[in-house]
């Protein structure tokens, strides 16, 4: 049985029984992917009400849509079985049993369903599915069909389906309106992004070529479907517009399993000038090696990934599984080979936020990749350099120099945030005012270089980003010539409940940080690499006098903290807003909106959607002492509604850091299980990938106590009583450190070439790690 190929239970996310209302959620959870391709966990034969989709990194199109979409690409998965003319699906037949399992360790999706048709014929379908982590252009599915109580003729239809549409928007209905699961997506407007270029079939091979209408990207699919166990009695090709299928008839004895292997290769004109040739050649290569070899290759690639990325919680297998699920989602979200793409807010698992890229990458996702897969972190940051021309244009539109990164971006780096809500009732000010994203990108650049020592990246990409973002902040800040202070007005901070505010503390301090570090890098390059600095300066027209100007503006943006009252005002006038108490919590013990309030009418209150000042404390841990952190955590935590999935993880980390860990486990679990428990109610739209990154940070940086302070790794852990320990692995300056945290000790092992040494700090004391030597440090 294919089930025997799966890993142990601790690595499996499972579905038992069929719940039509939850199938769209499981389609998200059971996505298989590899950073280039993401295919939602739809049933191979499909069903009415499915929200199926395959998404290809970087394939965007703006034709026939309100804003640009990550295109719902042609479906490679389609594999339907007919028993004596009766199609086996959940609407046509009765389902006797249904089970699925996602194997996180091997990147496999297993499925077994037993159908009974109206004539009483019982047929079992069992399948195994991958998007290869070895060859990211390869997808494959093996299906076994067993006629359990009959010997009726079996026809298998294997198709490539180019008739795909993106969801656009739902018409306005009264609050509380609900639709049956099998028709709810019919109510949406749909966007068309693809036209057929060609299709052909011969023997057991199919080819389909589609092209995006506006962006003109060619998508080339090649597929073969064959049985390694049976010869088909008859086979033929069927075609219609945007669809081609191979139909094969088999004669089976009762109880005899039919095995079918479908291999599909996908290339686009983003990858190659001749994607059709590439897909055909790749298919030939994989057919010759066979399905089992494809599975084995992918499994070996996954083994290497888990060696660097695995985390476990000793004594809490459910939480371990949830953390691993998040890591799996992070690994299938990032393409380490393409610097022109990034990770959308729903990665490659759904159409939520239309596949757009946010600040989530630098703030929530990048730390995971920096400290586990630094080469992937480098590629993600190169996307920001690739889109630097568009960021320059966005700054220029406001009459400013330098570069301003957009709140939402796609393939070109232009601003893609919608202006209005779907019903036109509310304006999205994020696109105009959440300018802090520019400093967040700069923070990601510096954090990556500090952790990796990758000077080459700094010289060729990072320094230019820092200089151009500093120019933007210099021009955007408004100096007061009398006081010498500078203001940044008409902004929105991370909180997002408050627009048009002045001097948001997070924005001002990150802008100041950006200016200071740009100046530091300029000085260091002037001393160490004047030749390279001269090249950059010549290309962007940078003058030495600008650097002094950056520092003057940075000084004017200084953040003053009163020792007597260290609570930082979130923005000018925040303390004058109405202090509305939070009095109600949901079944997950998370705050509800106070009566009469919702996302768009909290402007005049002190309520927060998500951490703002607390996010500042998290991102710049060296800047604030413990008393300041504690005072701000206690003040703002009581006013935060956590209406963003990234919020709980940050509160877990900072709660542990300031010694107020009472709700840390609750916040951690809220983040870790956000999709597995669907506790936001919208997992069907795609994975909350920022929460996956936040969960890793909560475990490693919160409970594991790992922080980079003053350029050195520090460990100051705290474990809840119910956990026995945690294990994780980190990369630092080209070496790996294996970490085990227990209640009484931290054990560190440096995995590096002989004689290599790394200095760290554990609970405030310096520790010298020597390659290959285990160091166990007792905790007070």
Write the layout of secondary structure elements.
Elements: E1 12-16, H1 23-29, E2 32-33, E3 37-39, E4 54-56, E5 60-61, E6 69-70, E7 79-83, E8 86-87, E9 94-103, E10 108-116, E11 122-131, E12 138-147, E13 154-161, E14 166-169, E15 189-191, E16 194-202, E17 205-212, E18 218-226, E19 234-240, E20 243-250, E21 257-268, H2 275-289, H3 291-309, E22 312-314, H4 317-333, H5 360-372, H6 374-386, H7 388-397, H8 430-433, H9 436-452, H10 455-476, E23 478-479, E24 486-487, H11 505-528, H12 530-540, H13 544-556, H14 613-619, H15 626-637, H16 647-657, H17 664-672, H18 689-703, E25 706-709, E26 712-715, E27 725-732, E28 735-742, E29 745-751, E30 757-762, E31 765-770, E32 774-778
Parallel strand pairs: 26-30
Antiparallel strand pairs: 1-9, 2-3, 3-4, 5-6, 7-8, 7-13, 9-10, 10-11, 11-12, 12-21, 13-20, 14-15, 16-17, 17-18, 18-21, 19-20, 22-27, 23-24, 25-26, 27-28, 28-29, 29-32, 30-31
Helix pairs in contact: 4-18, 5-6, 5-9, 5-18, 6-9, 6-10, 9-10, 9-11, 10-11, 10-12, 10-13, 11-12, 11-13, 14-16, 15-16, 16-17, 16-18, 17-18
- Low-confidence runs of at least 5 consecutive residues: none
CATH fold-level topology of the largest domain: Glycosyltransferase
Biggest sheet overview: 9 strands, antiparallel
- CATH architecture title of the largest domain: Alpha/alpha barrel
Strand content: 15-25%
Global morphology? globular
Number of helices: 18
């Amino acid at each position: 049985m294919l089930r025997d190929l799966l890993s142990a239970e601790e690595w499996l996310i499972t579905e038992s029984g069929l719940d039509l209302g939850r199938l769209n959620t499981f389609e998200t959870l059971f996505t298989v992917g590899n950073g280039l391709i993401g295919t939602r966990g739809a049933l191979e034969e499909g069903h009415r009400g499915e929200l199926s989709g395959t998404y290809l990194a970087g394939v965007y199109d703006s034709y026939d849509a309100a804003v640009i979409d990550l295109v719902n690409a042609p479906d490679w998965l389609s594999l339907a079985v007919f028993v004596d003319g009766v199609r086996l699906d959940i609407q046509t037949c009765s389902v006797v049993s249904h089970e699925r399992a996602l194997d996180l360790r091997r990147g496999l999706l297993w499925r077994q369903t037993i159908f009974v048709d109206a004539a009483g014929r019982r047929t079992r379908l069992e399948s195994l599915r991958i998007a290869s982590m070895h060859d990211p252009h390869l997808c494959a599915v093996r299906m076994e069909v067993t006629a359990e109580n009959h010997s009726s003729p079996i026809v298998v239809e294997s198709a490539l389906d180019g008739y795909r549409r993106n969801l656009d928007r739902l018409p306005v209905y009264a609050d509380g309106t609900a639709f049956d699961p099998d028709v709810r997506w019919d109510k949406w407007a749909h966007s068309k992004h693809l036209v057929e270029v060609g299709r052909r079939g011969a023997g057991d091979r199919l080819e389909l070529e589609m092209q995006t209408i506006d962006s003109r990207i060619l998508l080339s699919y090649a597929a073969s479907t064959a049985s390694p166990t049976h010869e088909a009695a008859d086979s033929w090709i069927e075609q219609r517009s945007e669809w081609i299928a191979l139909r094969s008839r088999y004669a089976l004895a009762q109880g005899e399993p039919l095995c079918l292997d479908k291999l599909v290769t996908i290339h686009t004109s983003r990858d190659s000038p001749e994607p059709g040739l590439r897909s055909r050649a790749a298919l030939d290569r994989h057919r010759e090696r066979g399905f089992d070899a494809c599975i084995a290759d992918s499994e070996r690639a996954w083994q290497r990934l888990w060696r660097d990325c695995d985390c476990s919680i000793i004594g809490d297998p459910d939480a371990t599984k949830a953390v691993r699920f998040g890591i799996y989602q992070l690994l299938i979200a990032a393409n380490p080979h393409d610097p022109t793409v990034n990770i959308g807010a729903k990665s490659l698992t759904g159409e939520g936020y239309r596949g757009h890229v946010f600040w989530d990458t630098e703030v929530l996702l990048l730390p995971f990749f920096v400290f586990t897969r630094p080469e992937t972190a480098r590629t993600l940051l190169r996307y920001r350099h690739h889109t630097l021309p568009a960021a320059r244009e966005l700054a220029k539109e406001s009459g400013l120099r330098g570069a301003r990164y957009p709140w939402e971006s796609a393939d070109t780096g232009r601003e893609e945030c919608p202006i209005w809500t779907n019903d036109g009732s509310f304006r999205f000010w994020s696109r105009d005012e959440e300018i802090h994203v520019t400093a967040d990108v700069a923070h990601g650049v510096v954090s990556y270089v500090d952790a990796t020592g990758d000077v080459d990246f700094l010289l060729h990409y990072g320094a230019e980003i820092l200089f151009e973002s500093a120019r933007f902040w210099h021009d955007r800040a408004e100096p007061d010539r009398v006081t010498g202070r500078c203001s940044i007005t008409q902004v929105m901070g991370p909180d997002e409940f408050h627009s048009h505010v002045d001097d948001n503390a997070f924005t001002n301090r990150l802008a100041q940080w950006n200016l200071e570090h740009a100046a530091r890098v300029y000085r260091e390059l002037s001393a160490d690499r004047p030749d390279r600095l001269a090249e950059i300066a010549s290309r962007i027209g940078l003058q030495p006098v600008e650097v002094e100007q950056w520092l003057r503006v940075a000084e004017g943006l200084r953040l003053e903290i009163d020792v007597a009252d260290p609570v930082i005002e979130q923005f000018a006038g925040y303390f004058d807003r109405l202090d509305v108490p939070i009095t109600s919590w949901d079944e997950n013990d998370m705050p509800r909106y106070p009566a009469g309030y919702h996302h768009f009418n909290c402007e005049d209150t002190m309520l927060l959607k998500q951490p703002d000042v607390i996010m500042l404390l998290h991102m710049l841990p060296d800047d604030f002492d413990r008393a300041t952190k504690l005072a701000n955590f206690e003040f703002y935590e009581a006013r935060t509604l956590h209406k963003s999935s990234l919020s709980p993880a940050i509160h877990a980390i900072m709660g542990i850091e300031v010694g107020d860990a009472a709700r840390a486990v609750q916040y951690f679990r809220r983040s870790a299980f956000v999709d597995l428990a669907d506790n936001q109610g919208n997992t069907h739209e795609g994975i909350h990938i920022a929460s996956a990154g936040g969960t890793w940070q909560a475990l490693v940086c919160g409970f594991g106590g790992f922080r980079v302070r003053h350029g050195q790794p520090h460990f100051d852990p705290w474990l809840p009583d119910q956990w026995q320990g945690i294990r994780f692995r980190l990369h630092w300056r080209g070496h790996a450190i294996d970490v085990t945290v227990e209640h009484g000790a931290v054990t560190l092992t440096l995995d590096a070439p002989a004689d290599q040494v790394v200095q760290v700090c554990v609970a405030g004391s310096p520790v010298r790690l020597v390659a290959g030597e285990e160091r166990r440090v007792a905790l007070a």
